[in-house]
Every structure is written in structure tokens, then in C-alpha cells.
Design brief:
With 480 residues, this protein is mostly beta strands. It has two domains: 372 residues, Methylamine Dehydrogenase, Chain H; 81 residues, Immunoglobulin-like (Sandwich). Helices cover 6% and strands 44% of the residues. It contains four helices and 38 strands. The strands form nine sheets. A six-stranded antiparallel beta sheet has the order 1-2-28-27-26-25, with no helix packed on it. The chain has a five-stranded mixed beta sheet with strand order 4-5-6-7-11. A four-stranded antiparallel beta sheet has the order 3-31-30-29. This is Choice-of-anchor B family protein. Pfam families: Por_Secre_tail (PF18962).
């Protein structure tokens, strides 16, 4: 019986969510870490469809303004997956949107505006931009394959999408049929996108950030400023008037190989840039270049951060005084920005969670991107081979949640008979829901209002289940 139980546990873990593992002595399970715990993981096999050989790519997050639930939007090479991560220990896969034309892509990128997600894909032919109303996720009870609410077909294949949420305009970059610069789209009515033209005077725009400027250069206060990572340079554009884009300046740097992606500090004074090929081309360690943008007409290189390994840096985002960088084989690295203006040692690493435990070498595996903006403190990472990770700074998981968890128990567990949920002290069991490994609700009962409740699971298959008590506390149950 013991061997059979281990088999079923292994089978379920290969298909389902890997649950909380604290970072202790430099590891969270198999994953190297420093000050970040693993909350859960959802593998590629659940997130993607079976077309081709699926991998993870971009990731973004959405917080429902009505329910405050948090959702991960995980871009895959053949689809876009939606996962409810409101309970970081027990994420629930809700479904996916498949690629628009039935072909797989090397990359897929997503961004959010007005409760809609906008999805582009690269090297995939006539994909266009898919638009999906995220409020549809509120009513999902079983995983679904969704259809988009709209598809914008003026573009075919685009590498990335940028949205300045303050103005309702999407900036699609490196679109193969519109000049490979920047393509402007009015998305103020999300399901009825309107073309606003193109800007192609500065070559290929690989990635960008667009802000309504409120930084130190008062000449541009209130203007829409685009910072483009344009393969061979960083370009600063005034894109306030889409029919009259004005180039402000550009800047290059030493050991330039492929200008990939960057992000402003919150005060819009400094810009942190990653070059995706310098580690390979020059044999250097992970490098983040800091530019001083105090004068947008005259940007200057301020300092350089060198990481502890030769891993390639990919996408990075600023939140307050921290820079969260997806660094391929080195996973997520967290840098302290408190001294960003210093001439030397301007950045320092203060934590990490390595989603690629094999090595930190120079290769295109591991963490593709990271989203650190959930108000809960949960951070989501999309890993090329291993899928969605939910991580969190060590020691910050709600003590209230932990206390509530301790008020309930399930026995026997593992169980080969119907187990009993029991409440301790003065608690009562008001409702119970049971989910299988795919997130499908297989049992639900409310208005119980008793200290004990027997789960009628005698007809269910062996495996791992999640039992949610009173709509808040989640417990893992093994049926054997």
C-alpha cells in the first residue's frame, strides 16, 4: 500500500500544483533561494495545450477591482493561460485562449487595460492582437478553452505590446507587417480597437515602456514618453501626438550586443537596461546598465551592476526600491535600488528565487519574466520549462491565514475512507468545497454550521485534492 500511495503522490505532483516550501538553508525544495519562499507551482503541462512543444514566455497579473482576487496571465508558446492565485498556496487553473491561427509561436506577450488582456504573438503568421474580457473569469467553475472577445487583424505577428494605462493606447512593437517600429492602437473601447498609425524612423523596437512623464526634466512634464529598446540603442520619443512623433534623443553604451528591455525607477530619474546578448558576446556576468535620464535630451550612462553569474538577464520591473529581474537560468533576482544614483556599487542583490536549479549558466532556459505588482505581496514568475511559480518574500505570509489554517483539520489524511473535517475550539464549518487536480470543483456544500463534517468522497479517484473550508482555508487531502 505504501508503494501505491507514493506512486499516486508522484503522479499527481507531475500533473498538478507544487505547494508551499519555505526557503531554508538556501533551498526551497530543489530550488536555490534567498529570502523568497515557494508558495506553489503550476507546470507547463497544465497551462498550455498540446500543440507543438509548449513553453512559457511572458507573464502579467490582473486584480479584479470588484472581488480583489488576483489572477496570473501566463503566456505560453501556443496559448495564454489564466490562473486564480488569490490563495497563493492553492492556485486554480481556469482555462486558456489558444493561438489565433493554430500555429505555435516562439513568444507571446500580454498586457492589461480596463479589465481586458491584450495578447500578441511573434513569428506566428497572421495572429493579430487578441482581446479578452477578464471579468469573464469570475463565473468560471471548471477549466475552459476561451474564445477572445475581439481580434485586431491590422497587425500580423508582433513581438511585444506596451500599454500606458493612463491614456488607453496600446503600443505594439516589432510587428512584421507594419514596419517593425511602433504601431499605435486606440483601445479606449477595448473590444473595438482603432488604428492610430505607425512610427518606424528608428529601426526595430524590440521592447518599450511608455509613461505619462512626471520626472525631473520639466520640459516634458505631462507628455507621453516612450523609452524604446531598439536592438542597437535606447531611444527616447515624445509620442503624445501619434501623427507627429518627436525623437528626443538616443543613447548607446559599451559592450553593446542586443539592447533588449528596460524600466524606469519610480521617480523617472533612472532607467535600468538589460542587454540580452552581452553575456554571450563578451563573456561577462549578468549586467544591468543604469542610465541617468535627468535630462531626456542628454541621457548618460550612470553605473553598471554586475551579477554573481553568467546568466542572461531578460525582463525586469521596478517596484519601489526594488528591481525584480527574470534572469533566465538564474531565475528571479531582486536588486536593491536604494543607492541607484551612486557612481559605484549602485545596485546590490538582496534576494532571489532560482527556478532553474541545474545551473546559472549562459543559456536561454529558465525564468522568462516576472510580475511583482500584486498588492498581496505575491510574485509570479513564468519559467520556460517549468511553468508558473508563485513566490513570496520569506516570513510575510499572513499570520492570520496561518492561524485560521490551524483551526481546522482533516482526518484521516491520507484517507481510504470518507475523511472528516473538524473545527477546533469555537470555530464552525460553514461551507466545504473540494477541487480535483485540474481545479474542477467536485463537491460543494454550504450552510453546514457544525464543528465536524464527513466528506462524501468514496466514489472519487485516488490522488491529491484541495479542500476549501469556509471559502478561505485550503487543505491538501490525499485519497489512496
Amino acid at each position: 500500500m505504501k508503494h501505491k500511495l507514493l506512486f499516486y503522490i508522484g503522479l499527481c505532483l507531475s500533473l498538478h500544483i507544487y505547494s508551499q516550501t519555505n526557503c531554508e538553508s538556501g533551498f526551497a525544495g530543489e530550488y536555490p533561494c534567498n529570502d523568497y519562499d515557494l508558495m506553489s507551482r503550476v507546470p507547463v503541462s497544465i497551462l498550455a495545450n498540446n500543440l507543438g512543444t509548449p513553453e512559457g514566455s511572458d507573464i502579467w497579473g490582473w486584480t479584479d477591482p470588484t472581488t480583489n482576487k488576483e489572477y496570473a496571465i501566463a503566456a505560453m508558446t501556443n496559448s495564454t493561460a489564466f490562473v486564480d492565485v488569490s490563495d497563493p498556496l492553492n492556485p486554480v487553473y481556469l482555462g486558456r485562449i489558444d493561438t489565433e491561427n493554430g500555429n505555435t509561436s516562439f513568444w507571446r506577450d500580454v498586457k492589461i487595460y480596463n479589465n481586458h488582456v491584450f495578447i500578441v504573438a511573434d513569428n506566428v503568421g497572421a495572429h493579430g492582437m487578441q482581446v479578452f474580457d477578464l471579468t469573464r473569469l469570475r463565473s468560471v467553475t471548471t477549466p475552459q478553452t476561451f474564445s477572445p472577445d475581439a481580434v485586431y487583424n491590422v497587425v500580423s505577428s508582433c513581438h511585444n505590446i506596451v500599454i500606458n494605462e493612463a491614456n488607453g493606447v496600446a503600443y505594439l512593437v516589432d510587428c512584421k507587417n507594419t514596419g517593425r517600429g511602433v504601431h499605435f492602437v486606440d483601445i479606449s473601447d477595448p473590444v473595438n480597437p482603432v488604428t492610430l498609425g505607425n512610427y518606424n524612423s528608428e529601426g526595430v523596437t524590440h521592447d518599450a515602456q511608455v509613461v505619462t512623464y512626471n520626472g525631473p526634466d520639466t520640459d516634458y512634464t505631462g507628455k507621453e514618453i516612450l523609452i524604446g529598446s531598439n536592438e542597437t540603442k535606447v531611444v527616447i520619443l515624445d509620442v503624445t501626438d501619434k501623427n507627429n512623433v518627436v525623437k528626443i534623443s538616443d543613447v548607446v553604451y559599451s559592450q553593446l550586443a542586443y539592447t533588449h528591455q528596460g524600466w524606469f525607477t519610480d521617480d523617472q530619474r533612472y532607467f535600468l537596461l538589460g542587454d540580452e546578448s552581452d553575456e554571450q558576446s563578451f563573456g561577462i556576468n549578468t549586467r544591468t546598465i543604469v542610465f541617468d535620464f535627468q535630462d531626456l535630451d542628454n541621457p548618460v550612462e550612470s553605473s553598471t551592476y554586475s551579477g554573481p553569474s553568467t546568466a542572461i538577464d531578460h525582463n525586469g520591473y521596478v517596484k519601489g526600491n526594488e528591481f525584480f529581474m527574470a534572469s533566465y537560468r538564474a531565475g528571479m533576482r531582486v536588486l536593491d535600488l536604494s543607492n541607484v544614483g551612486a557612481a559605484t556599487n549602485s545596485l546590490s542583490e538582496i534576494g532571489y528565487f532560482d527556478t532553474h536549479p541545474a545551473n546559472n549558466g549562459t543559456g536561454f532556459n529558465g525564468a522568462w519574466s516576472v510580475y511583482p505588482y500584486f498588492s498581496s505581496g505575491n510574485i509570479i514568475i513564468n519559467d520556460i520549462e517549468r511553468g508558473l511559480f508563485v513566490v513570496r518574500k520569506s516570513g510575510t505570509l499572513s499570520t492570520t491565514e496561518e492561524e485560521f489554517k490551524n483551526q481546522f483539520s482533516i482526518s484521516p489524511n491520507p484517507a481510504n475512507i470518507n475523511p472528516t473535517v473538524k473545527a477546533k475550539q469555537n470555530e464552525q464549518i460553514r461551507s466545504v468545497a473540494v477541487y480535483n487536480i485540474l481545479g474542477k470543483k467536485i463537491f460543494f456544500k454550504q450552510n453546514i454550521n457544525q464543528p465536524e463534517f464527513v466528506l462524501p468522497l468514496e466514489n472519487q479517484s485516488k490522488g491529491i485534492y484541495i479542500v476549501k473550508i469556509n471559502g478561505f482555508v485550503s487543505k491538501k487531502l490525499i485519497l489512496r
